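Aim 2, interim progress: modelling of the adenosine-5'-diphosphate-bound target.
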Amino acid sequence: MNIIFLGPPGAGKGTQAQKICDALNIPQISTGDILRRAMKEGTETGKKAKSFIDAGQLVPDEVIIDIVKERLAMDDCKQGYILDGFPRTVPQAEALDTFATIDSVIELDVKDEELVNRLSGRRVCVKCGATYHISMLNGKITCDKCGEELIQRNDDKAETVLNRLKVYHDQTAPLIGYYEGKGLLKKIDGAQGMDNTTRAILDALGAKA
Ligand code: ADP
Ligand code: ADP
Ligand code: ZN
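Predicted structure of the complex, ligand included:
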């Protein structure tokens, strides 16, 4: 199954993609993770992306489209995948249609006030990318999965968060109509607890786990 997770920053795309990918045994393709790795490694792509990401803007379509096209051509994507964070603009969605067939689009719906709270409390593992929220860490500063240090992403600082929400509403939200028109959209209430959200997504996909 080829699946897209759509939703604003902080909606729970990464958290849920990880769980659903484990359940369905398919890879999670997170463009944010790919770009952050490129920045850490100092590659050409990483250098190009950095100023956009730090400002809460989207990186240019042509940069990200090539990355995704290459990634989806790899062997582990043959049985399906979850795209987490792509497409984010209508031109990206149109490009995707030329090299992939999408079966389902899961839209995670969460109100802006809750998103600000989630993003400002988000902590991520520098090594494995696992995501936490300060409300569940009880002061712990290391990753449960690999023991590495947890950090706050630069673009989760208050001044950038509001900009990212605006970018979402302006540039990414039009994709809801795009996929509704194709009959692929499944809207999920992302404000429920994590486990209930996971169940709702699996139900919507007609999958059992
Ligand atoms: P979040 O999980 O908070 O929605 P991501 O980790 O998906 O954020 O993305 C972080 C940043 O990486 C974005 O703000 C944007 O600058 C860049 N980015 C990720 N995916 C894309 C994309 N498909 N198109 C353009 N920029 C992207
Ligand atoms: P996205 O990938 O859409 O930007 P994340 O999965 O990184 O979102 O989640 C953003 C923050 O919200 C993280 O701190 C995460 O722990 C928290 N979070 C995710 N899902 C829920 C939920 N259902 N209820 C409360 N907090 C959540
Ligand atoms: Zn870790």
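The radius of gyration is 16 Å. The chain has nine helices and eight strands.
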